[in-house]
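User: Could you go from structure to sequence for me? I need the amino acid at each position, not a summary. Structure tokens:
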């Protein structure tokens, strides 16, 4: 077992399904296996959802399979979700867990009142740097291995807003330039900025995380202390 920093390069320890599934169950979310071989978790008020979709392999982000899809809707009887967020394998489960806790505790999951600056402020407070060319939309970690950016949405990202050319928060880790990504995430246009800020703050946290395994692509960028 190791203590590892930085968190955004620590990987998911091969336990992304188990850690998040245990968290959701502990918060009282109900679980349904689906005919698509996915695991669907729904909050008690039926306004929030989280689905482990890796087995169905619906699509990729940055060449990586999407593993978790989060969603929110305005009414329990609404057939359509207001927003969706997608997370590939490799994303640190601590950051996704903090996002889910924030989603679970907010009164109105489908609406936010923050501004995009909240996301960048959360990152800068943890030592990340604003992009010189795009200081109001993009921040990068001090090692230039990970970025969070407000950009045009990639294909297949679903949102209740039907307008074309929408932008949403995208995040990724590329420990070695030109090598495969470690993880990618995509938030649709209507995801509240304050929720994205929670994810960003946790992602950039300097607090070490425990790991049993280390991602090969990032090992040279990690500070590792063996736990006794």
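Assistant: Here is the amino acid at each position, in order:
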């Amino acid at each position: 077992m190791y203590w590892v920093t930085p968190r955004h390069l620590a990987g998911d320890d091969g336990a992304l399904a188990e850690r998040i599934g245990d968290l959701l169950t502990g918060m009282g979310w109900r679980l349904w296996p689906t005919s698509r071989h996915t695991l669907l978790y729904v909050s008690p008020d039926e306004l929030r959802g989280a689905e482990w979709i890796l087995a169905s392999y619906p699509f990729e982000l940055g060449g990586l399979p999407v593993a978790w899809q989060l969603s929110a809707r305005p009414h329990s009887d609404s057939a359509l979700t207001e927003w969706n967020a997608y997370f590939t394998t490799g994303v640190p489960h601590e950051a996704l867990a903090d996002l889910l806790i924030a989603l679970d505790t907010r009164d109105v999951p489908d609406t936010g009142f923050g501004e995009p600056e909240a996301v960048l402020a959360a990152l800068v407070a943890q030592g990340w740097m604003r992009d010189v060319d795009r200081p109001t939309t993009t921040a990068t970690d001090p090692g230039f291995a990970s970025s969070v950016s407000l950009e045009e949405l990639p294909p297949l990202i679903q949102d209740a807003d039907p307008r074309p050319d929408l932008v949403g928060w995208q995040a990724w880790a590329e420990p070695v330039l030109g090598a495969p990504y470690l993880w990618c995430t995509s938030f649709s246009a209507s995801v509240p900025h304050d929720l994205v800020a929670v994810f960003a703050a946790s992602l950039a946290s300097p607090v070490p995380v425990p790991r049993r395994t280390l991602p090969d692509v990032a090992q040279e960028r990690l500070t590792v202390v063996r736990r006794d």
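One structural detail worth keeping in mind: The mean pLDDT is 95.
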